Amino acid sequence: MQPRDLSTHSVYRAGRGIEEVAREIGLDPDELVKLSSNENPLGPSPAAAEAIQQHATHSHTYPKAAHTDLTDAIARQWDVSPSQVWLANGGDGALDYLARAFLEPGDGVLVPDPGFAYYSMSARYHHGTVGTYQLNKADGFEQTATTVLESYNGERVVYITSPHNPTGRELPREELLTLADRTDDSTLILVDEAYAEFASTDSAIDLLGERDDIAVLRTFSKAYGLAGVRLGYLLAPPTWADAYERVTTPFAASELACRAGLAALEDDAHLDNTVELVRWAREYMHEQLQAHTWPSGGNFVLAAVDDAETVARDCRERGVIVRDCTSFGLSDCIRISCGTREETKRAVDVINDIV
C-alpha cells in the first residue's frame, strides 16, 4: 500500500530553530541570535501571552465562541462583514481554504519566483497546476503588473506578495489595479499581506467592497508575534458569503489562538513598538551593511553576498543565524530578519566581518 504519487510535490523548508542550531555548533541557545525566520523581535503581545495563560484551563472545549468573537473583531477592524473573514490555522491554512474553494482539478495558478513555496504546494495538493512569473535581480526585484502579465495565461489564481518575501519589494496600488483590470473575469488576485504592517503601500483590503476579483491574506505571525500559535485569515469579497463554511475544517483556529488574537488586536502599543523597531532595524542594515541591499517593506532585508551558504554557515558559527536564500533560487543572497537593536547591531558586525 502506497500514497498517491507525490513526486511533483516539493517540501517546505522552514528556517532552522535556535535549539537545533545550538546543539549542532555546541553553544547555549541564549548565546545565539536568530534572524532567519522573520519572527517578531519583541515576542508576542504581553496581553496575548496573558490571554493564553488565562484560557489554558479552557483548552478542553471547542473554540466556538472565541472563533466567532475573533471573526467579529477582525471584521470591525477592517470594516467588512464577518462572513468575509476566513479564519485559519496560520496564513498557510487560509491558502488551503482558498485552493479548496477555487480550484478544479487541472486549474492553473501563477506564483512568483522567487517566492513563498506554499503557494504552489497548496495548489498541487488540490490538483492544480503551477506557473511562475519571475522577479528579476537585474530589475531590482521590482514588482509591476507587466512583470506578472508577461507570464499570465488565464490562470485561476494569481498570487501577489506585497511586501514580497524574500526581497521585501512592494507592489504599488496602481500596479495592482492594472493587473486586476487586465486579467480575466474568472481570475482571482490573491494579495498576501503578511508583512503589510511594516510597509508603506496602502493595504488592498479597501478594494474588497469594490470588486470581487481580489482577496487579501493576513497573519498574526509577524507584527503580532504569534507565529507559534498559528493564526491567520483571508479577507474575501462579500459575494463569497457561504464559501468559507463549505471548505473550512471544523474549528479552523484553536481556542488559545483565538484568545491570543483577540488580545493582540487590542494591544496597540505592542504593535506600534514592533513597527518602530523594525523600521529602525531595516534602516540600520541598509546604512551599515557592507553589502548591497534591496528596498524592503517587510521585517527583513535581503543582502547580496558571494556565496550565501558559506556566509550563512560562517555567521552561524559566530552565533548569528541568517537565512541562506539558496532555497529561493538566490544562492548569492542572505535574508536578515529585523532583531532588537542589540541583535541587529551584532548581526551587522558579524556579517561585515565575514563579507
From TrEMBL:
UniProt xrefs under SUPFAM superfamilies: PLP-dependent transferases
Entry annotated with the keyword Amino-acid biosynthesis: yes
The keyword rRNA-binding is annotated on this UniProt entry: no
Listed PROSITE patterns: AA_TRANSFER_CLASS_2
Pathway terms, separated by semicolons: Amino-acid biosynthesis; L-histidine biosynthesis; L-histidine from 5-phospho-alpha-D-ribose 1-diphosphate: step 7/9
Cofactors that this protein relies on: pyridoxal 5'-phosphate
Gene3D superfamilies, A to Z: Aspartate Aminotransferase, domain 1, Type I PLP-dependent aspartate aminotransferase-like (Major domain)
InterPro entries noted in UniProt: Aminotrans_II_pyridoxalP_BS, Aminotransferase_I/II_large, HisP_aminotrans, HistidinolP_aminotransfase, PyrdxlP-dep_Trfase, PyrdxlP-dep_Trfase_major, PyrdxlP-dep_Trfase_small
Disordered: annotated segments: 35-58
Residues with PTM N6-(pyridoxal phosphate)lysine: 222
Catalyzed reactions: L-histidinol phosphate + 2-oxoglutarate = 3-(imidazol-4-yl)-2-oxopropyl phosphate + L-glutamate
Residue ranges annotated for the Aminotransferase class I/classII large domain, each copy included: 31-351
One of the GO BP terms on file: L-histidine biosynthetic process
EC number(s) stated in the UniProt entry for this protein: 2.6.1.9
Keywords tagged on the record: Amino-acid biosynthesis, Aminotransferase, Histidine biosynthesis, Pyridoxal phosphate, Transferase
Gene Ontology MF terms in the entry: histidinol-phosphate transaminase activity; pyridoxal phosphate binding
Top EC class of this enzyme: transferase
NCBIfam families in UniProt: hisC
HAMAP family reported for this sequence: HisC_aminotrans_2
Similarity-based family: Belongs to the class-II pyridoxal-phosphate-dependent aminotransferase family. Histidinol-phosphate aminotransferase subfamily.
Protein name: Histidinol-phosphate aminotransferase
Organism: Halocatena pleomorpha
Top-level taxonomy: Archaea, Methanobacteriati, Methanobacteriota, Stenosarchaea group, Halobacteria
Chain's gene name: hisC
